[in-house]
Amino acid sequence: MNNTITLTLDDQRRLTGKSLLWNKSGAIIDAFVSGIDKQTVVDQWLIYVNQLLAAVDWQDESTCYRIFEDGISLAISAPMDALYASCDVNEAAWDFACSKILTGSISDTHQQEMDKTVTRLKQMIAEEANPALLNLIDLAIKNHVDYLVDDDEFSLGYGKSCQRWPVTSLPDPTQLNWQHYQSIPIALVTGTNGKSTTVRIMSEIIKQSNKCCGVTSTDFIRVGEKIIDYGDYSGPGGARMLLRHPETETAILEVARGGILRRGLPIDHVDAALITNIAEDHLGQYGINTVAGLAQTKAVVAKALTSGVLVLNADDPYLTALAPTLTVNKCWFSLNENNPVLQQHKAIGGAICFIRDGAIFYCTEKTSTGERLESMIVAVNDIPMTLNGAAQHNVQNALGATALAKSLHIDSAVIGLALQNFSSNVDDNPGRGNQFKLNGASVIMDFAHNVHGMNAMALTMANIPASRKFLMLSHAGDRSNDDMIKMTKSALKMKPDILVAAETVEYLRGRELGEISNLIAKVAIESGMSADNIYFAEGPYQGAQQIVNQLSANDLALLIVLSERNKVIELLTKKTNQTAGMS
């Protein structure tokens, strides 16, 4: 047996919002631990971190930790004007603890090292200190005014009432008109799949209610019809940019796992939140190694709710198992009106959203007088993105968006109209179930990148009758072989007649050229496909060309496009227009 002790610092960072561990700002360390009891390591860290907190006059600050399968997370709280210094305090405590554990003793120079460290930390804290900022934060809280703060700016209020200042040139609090600063309706959207689609549906719903909707997502930040910038804005930075924009009247914020774990929630208080679903994805990062742990991470959005509503998927076993620990007002949605969780929630007076007779229904929570209203929102077949109900994952997305919109007190007729207007095209929902018609055939483009998403697309394709079915498949190189095998098997559930394995050179991420494509082909052959029906392409664009050139009337193709998306869209749009011109 190998009893070698290993203590490896994996990551250290600031926490600026409510997080998985707690609701305080400060610093956190993730570390891998083996060969020693993890609690022993935590206890040693606690000794040194408490010594350091006392030495730098942070006696009122606190500590928190989490033990996971192969390591520990260690956090300390700190003032908002000392978060960088708090990272150094935490790391110094970790270093002292590691030295003690690994050497088994305290060195002769330990006290000198400690004194030197404390001097350095006090200097950092003094240099970072901004008492005027802390005073403004306290006053904002006392006046019930929303505020945002980052390295460069401090702001009060959201949307058109927002006013901002450099953190180095803050206003005189006595000159502020606190009544001027207002909030706006805000909702958070998280989950493994369906986040971006739901955010875009919500944008259309808000638009139909004659409000200017601002959205953040993993693809862009947008206010109304104006794209502010492209990129991943699912973290706190995107939220601040959106909430400070003068045209934002309602904000829908996509909140991804990474942002929650790296910094915490982007803001402390919202009006509603939605968790779409939970599935295996991005495990092994920031101490989250299980799907149950991932579910707990996504559920951090509930911490931003005081009187608002948490919308949950009753068809998701991880969410139904976690829900009893979330003591907030809930609304459940399900594809099945008779779902037991849904019916139990209805029985206690809770709001629910469901499918009945091919249509979306919403039932309000019971009032104090025992009344509740039930309304039909829209027929599923009238929602273009559901492909006449074949795309069950988009039926679920429509249910979640409906429940979220109702939680924001939006009229049912407005929601129904928006769902009818929202399409699976590259304008409304780029990269997600985009449908093209050419030569009498149907082509669907998606970028499913995990097993849950691939299963959803394969089920959609299996539900659509066709003369022949084509599949173009790629995987990112940072996925494990096991993940790629699972995703390939999921995609093959659509039972393709022709498979094109396409390279994604931009996403090889250390893999050899041809390695991923050959793995896809191997899995397909082992699953019963003939090698004669398997083709290879240098990239998604070439793969799409190969398939498009073979399509005939009543054929169906699924293109999983991880890269070269714009080129593939251009190809499909051109072919679609050519077909329309000939008809």
In terms of quaternary structure, the protein is: single chain
Q: How much of the polypeptide forms β-strand, as a percent range?
A: 15-25%
Q: Tell me the distance between the termini.
A: 74 Å
Structural class: alpha/beta
Spatial strand sequence of the major β-sheet: 11-10-9-12-8-13-14-15-16-17-18
Which bin fits the share of residues in helices?
A: 25-40%
Low-pLDDT stretches: none
Biggest sheet architecture:
11 strands, mixed
Q: Please give the count of helices.
A: 17
The global form is globular
List how many beta strands DSSP finds.
24
> What's the mean pLDDT score?
93
Radius of gyration, in angstroms, nearest whole number: 26 Å
